[in-house]
Amino acid sequence: MQRLLLVTALGLTLAACGQQSETPAPAASTTPAATEPAPMPAKPMSFADRLQAAVDGEHRSAENKARDAHRHPAQTLAFFGLDAGQTVIEITPGGGWYSEILAPALKGDGQLVGAIVNAGAVEDERARGYYERSNQGLRDKLAGNADVYGGMTLVEFDTGSPNFGESGSADLVLTFRNVHNWTGNGYDEAMFNGFFDVLKSGGVLGVVEHRAAEGTSAEDSAKSGYLTESYVIGLAEKAGFQLAEKSEINANPADTKDHANGVWTLPPVLRVPEGEDKAKYEAIGESDRMTLKFVKP
Nearest CA to 284 among 248, 259, 249? Predict the structure, then answer.
């Protein structure tokens, strides 16, 4: 009896093993393994964004950025048609306030040229010393930050017969608050002729200048630093330019333009007459300015 039970149990065990071995394995999944989505290509930065990034750049001092409220650099340059790929000439950059915006905006896709006065050709000793110091200061600024200014070049010109480069080689010529100096020294017509020569057909001349009330005499303008719009437009048209558009981007209705020390009474110079309150002129802000866009036919 025990032997029969043992044989029966063994048979059941073998049967169970046989059943287990015949059970089909689970089918392999046909669902593809999850994968990470391909990264989207980076959207190219627009030139307007590049320009704003240059305005906001850490290379600019807090003092210079504070003047944006009066100078409106991004809006002004956009009005003049600044764009990637252009050859741009900035006339007498001075300390490089605008250069520190133009240079990084154009770097790698455009060319910025700073046109500076050839100090060696200036006869007046005091003026020559000023230009020597100014030019060296600008050169030091450019050399001190190649990441920002590495694409900018400088060209010297003589005020009597200014040449800014090969004829028809530039897309855009820019001058900020300089014309009154040229008028006071008698070479404003020569400068505008030089601008016309270096620009391509269809090229743009952008002018920002302290604005006098119409009817102000040339003599008073020379003393105050303010010029009438009609005078500046006349200079440009005499050289061959056509006025394309005006803008009030840099207007300042609070500027009465009758200050004892002319435009230099206002910020940033603040040459305030003795005994007067500097805060009064700080509250006015920088000068009322014309913003004119001319085109070479």
Answer: 259
* Closest listed residue to residue 103, CA positions, set 116, 112, 115: 112
What's the rounded Cα separation, in Å, for the pair 155 and 218?
31
Q: What 8-state DSSP symbol labels residue 67?
A: T
Contact status, residue 291 vs residue 207, Cβ threshold 8 Å = yes
pTM of this structure = 0.86
Contact 180, 210 (CB under 8 A): yes
Asked if 204 and 80 touch (Cβ cutoff 8 Å), the reply is yes
CA dihedral of 164, 168, 170, 175, whole degrees rounded to 10: 50
Bridge partners (DSSP) of residue 204 are: 172, 295
Torsion of CA 271, 274, 276, 282, to 10 degrees: 20
Which residues have C-beta within 8 Å of that of residue 154, sequence separation ≥ 6? Answer: 113, 114, 115, 116, 138, 139, 142
**How remote is the C-alpha of 206 from its chain's centroid?**
13
The 10 Å Cβ neighbour count of residue 12 is 10
For residue 249, count CB atoms less than 10 angstroms from its CB and return exposed for 0-12, middle for 13-18, buried for 19 or more: middle
Distance CA 240, CA 260 (A): 36
Cα separation of 76 and 59, whole Å?
20
Identify the band that residue 16 occupies on the pLDDT scale cut at 50, 70 and 90.
Answer: very low
Task: List, for residues 147-175, the tens digit of each pLDDT value.
Answer: 999 999 999 999 999 999 999 999 999 99
Interval 24-80: pLDDT, tens: 444 444 555 556 666 666 678 899 999 999 999 999 999 999 999 999 999 999 999
